[in-house]
Amino acid sequence: MDLSKIPAADPPPGVTPNFDNPEGSKFAIYSVSIALCSSATLVLLLRLYTRLFILRISGLDDWCCVMGQICAWIFAILSLINIRNGYGYHVWDLTLDKITPFKQYDLAEEGIYALGVWFVKTSILLFYLRLSPEKRFRQMTFVIMGFVAIYSLLSIFIFTMGCIPVQAMWDVTRMDGAKCADAFDFVYANASFNVLSDILTLVLPIKLCWSLQTTVRQRILLMIVFGTGSFACVVAVLRIVTMMPYIHSNDFTHFKVTLANWCMIEINVGIICASLPTMRPLLMRLFPRVFSTAGRSDNSPKGSGGSYSLKPKKKIRNWDHLTTVEGTQATTHEPEPEQDNPSDSQHIVKTEYEQTEESEDSQGISKSTHYSVTYNPDRDHV
């Protein structure tokens, strides 16, 4: 049987198949893929420059982001290659010999997409682990990380091996008698899991960022940076909405372009959102008035006349420690207890204030100043 002579599907009423010069979406595929991957790659390179050349450090989150970008480029390249197999064309303008290679490339794209999203989300969550040593915060981060890993692995498995026999996933001649998972149902489930994980990831650092001891302007800027991740939530929701008109459509070679474009947006926007919080040292060099935390914060304790009052110290955080791997290794000191020795008739009162000073050149290094005041009433009578 010569599959190159058999139409892949019947056209809708009133539509004439065009096998010689069909209308496709080649321009949209090229423009969206190249523009999004190039923009995200540029931001990623700025991130790596900040980490490797300004801070001279790197973390696992940086390399997860790199892997996510590699997956985005592989996704784009597979899309461009698949144009020759009918990607972007109406299915009734194709012959059956195009469907098998089309599906093979499409399945590879779906697996790469799930893997890329997994890398990007893991990169963001690994960065969160450097924000705070608080046990509950880290536990929640690990829980979300595990949730993302489980549904990502499940997605890759279903996307690539969702039929029995597996060959029926791409070979139309094996479809008779094959048992396959409902593709749309699982795509909806995957998109819903993405939305849920995006929301949890977005909400998790809000309280932590607001607790930083810095100016209100700096807090708002930092929350805006983290808030850019909300766009990833919007993209995931739009991908769900976009799929709805195609539930009962058999024109999969054409509408797959729209779904793939949203997938490209989701991966690359995620990479940009994951990179922005780590680029603060670079932004501080370019825009020092906006991004620098030098100077007194709104919560710095001051006495009358601008002098520092002596108060029991607190653990002080500011934005600088968010950009270093060692940022969470902050050392905290408990105030020394008041000493009272009745036999010596001495009353010793100790008060302590710790001021953290971090400059652009000393990332995450703190300087502590301790004041000790001792009063001995017996000495007044000597």
TrEMBL record:
Where is it mainly found? membrane
Please state every residue range assigned to the domain named Rhodopsin.
46-284
Q: Name one Pfam family in it.
A: Fung_rhodopsin
- Name the membrane topology term: Multi-pass membrane protein
Q: Where are the transmembrane segments?
A: 27-48, 60-83, 111-129, 141-167, 187-208, 220-247, 259-279
Keyword terms: Membrane, Transmembrane, Transmembrane helix
Q: Name one GO cellular component term.
A: membrane
The signal peptide, as residue positions, is: none
What are the Polar residues biased-composition ranges? 362-375
Q: Does the keyword Transmembrane apply?
A: yes
Tell me which family the UniProt entry assigns to this protein.
Belongs to the SAT4 family.
What name goes with this protein?
A: Rhodopsin domain-containing protein
Species of origin: Aspergillus avenaceus
